[in-house]
Amino acid sequence: MATTFEPEKKTEDHRLTNVSSIADEKTDYESHSSDKVIEGSEGVTEHELHTLRHVPDTLPYASFLVVIVEFAERWTYYGTTNSFNNYIRAPLPPGSTTGAVPKADRASGVAGALGKGVQKSFAIRTFNTFWVYCTPFVGGILADTLWGRYNTIMIFSLVCLVGHIVLVCSSIPPALQHPDVALGLLIVAIVIMGLGAGSIKANVSPMIAEQYTGKLRKETLPSGEVIIRDPAITVQRIYMWFYAAINLGSCGAISAAFIARDHGYWQSYLVPTCIFALVPLVLLAGKGIYVKTPPRGSVLLEVFRVTKMCLVPALSINPVKTYRNMKAPTFWDPARPSSFPKGKRPATVTWDSDFVDEVYRTYKACQVFLFFPFFWLCYSQIDGNLGTMAASMRLNGTPNDLIQNLNPISIVIMIPILDHGVYPLLRRWKINFSPIKRISLGFIVAGFAMLYAAVLEHFLYLRSPCHDNQPSACVGADGKPLQADINVWVVSGPYILVGLSEIFASITSIEYAFTKAPKRMKSVVTAFSQFQNAISSAINFALTAVNVEERFTWLFGSFGIVAWVVGILFFVTYVTLNRCFLLAISLTFIPIVSTTSIRRKRSST
């Protein structure tokens, strides 16, 4: 059924994108001397905008309620998925019926259950990631077109809870006596949980920023300094702390690692299930407080129609001509209602010109995310392969899947340092550390993490009694692990570096998705940004044949180099080319202006 869209007021929706330099590299070249009042602000002029210090606003109470929901959801997600590697890969320890390691063997023992090996573990975990990051489209579309974000989160939290219950059933001792049955139940749980978790993810991140409704305004501090309360910086802070909540919740995997090792998997999975049961209760408690965005009709269908109307006239047998047509300023004109003669507007055109502009903005926002699959390739290694590497090292009583919690812990520690120290200092020094620059740096840091892992894996091959012949499966005649004489905590480097790269790249992508997406399509754009994780998983799945321990060195090294190359290309695409273009214009017109000026002086004399 077609939906007619009314022209949308360009006030609140444009408050964040027009006021600050959230992703606008051009601000370095604009004049800051105007006394014109900024549209949508509370009396802030252009001059004040560029001369006064910018600080974040107070965060609303409702945002913290959304943070609690995300905290609980991430605790349960990582508290289960972080155990999947050992649960699927390793067999039951000798004498165990639950997957727990006997007390006498805990110094070097590794929990396990199904005994399906490294490649099957990798394939199932990769499918889980792929599925979780495909399903945000389901939640995004339902929220934007039918239920709204609040109702969508509530419904799919109940769906996710059902999946957690199935997961617990898959890990009880009677099920583990039949590994194929337990594996089947695990896959069913993954499908249900992925549908629920993905649909929640598409809506939580837009919903948390929607709770803030402040505007750009001046404020005098007790010290007498006049400052600017900047919505864009506020949103940046909201997402910094939102990501901190995600990673604080991820630390739930710490308890899961010890519970699985000491008491078995069914208890390890039961704890996150009980925690997730709190999510619907928190949502109900905040029902009357949340700022709720109502659904706005069949947006996605209209986006496809607008795209088709503009794309068909631009297509040509010559691909170069097609590209030029798509880049032309008039590309979107065929879909504008004003382009049709009076009385001849097709019945299928149920939108206005503002909606066409929103579609354009949506595509512009989504272009940035196309680089991210290569970033998530690096991130995916901390989920399992680095855990497999850790299982090959001297544990000294530390569960091998505990080390990966250094990733969220490091993020939680570094976010306050950046939010209260580094970023304000850069703003004070007038350094525009824009999202494009942050994302580019995130790729570079992720590349360093992978190269660290590659070098470490090389030394692991040298020290392991089995060398590069599956060090994690190296056991003695008694079936107990034979581990390399390398302290397991040495593997913490890649986890910490990937955490730093996430702060620069991942947090910024969430912020970018919210601030650049039109109001009617924020959930869908957020889903698209998260879909890059699914693309990364598909690429990873295609590399299953090389995801074996004897090739980890080359795998990590390749991912590191790819991250560097893509990060540099990203920076060149979105920053350097723009500045080179401006420089080229300057070099072209300055001589012309100078020559004209000289000629005028000569003619006057």
From TrEMBL:
The cellular location(s) given in this protein's UniProt record come to: Membrane
Which stretches does the entry tag as region Disordered? 1-34
This protein's UniProt keywords: Membrane, Transmembrane, Transmembrane helix
Which ranges are annotated Basic and acidic residues under compositional bias?
1-16, 23-34
The source's superkingdom equals Eukaryota
- Alphabetical list of InterPro entries matching this protein: MFS_trans_sf, POT_fam, PTR2_symporter_CS
Topology in the lipid bilayer is annotated as: Multi-pass membrane protein
Indicate the transmembrane segments per the record: 130-147, 154-175, 181-200, 238-260, 266-286, 365-382, 402-426, 438-455, 495-514, 552-575, 581-598
Q: What Pfam family is a match for this entry?
A: PTR2
Main localisation: membrane
Give the family per the record.
Belongs to the major facilitator superfamily. Proton-dependent oligopeptide transporter (POT/PTR) (TC 2.A.17) family.
- Its recorded name reads Uncharacterized protein
Q: Which organism is it from?
A: Somion occarium
Q: Cite the source lineage.
A: Eukaryota, Fungi, Dikarya, Basidiomycota, Agaricomycotina
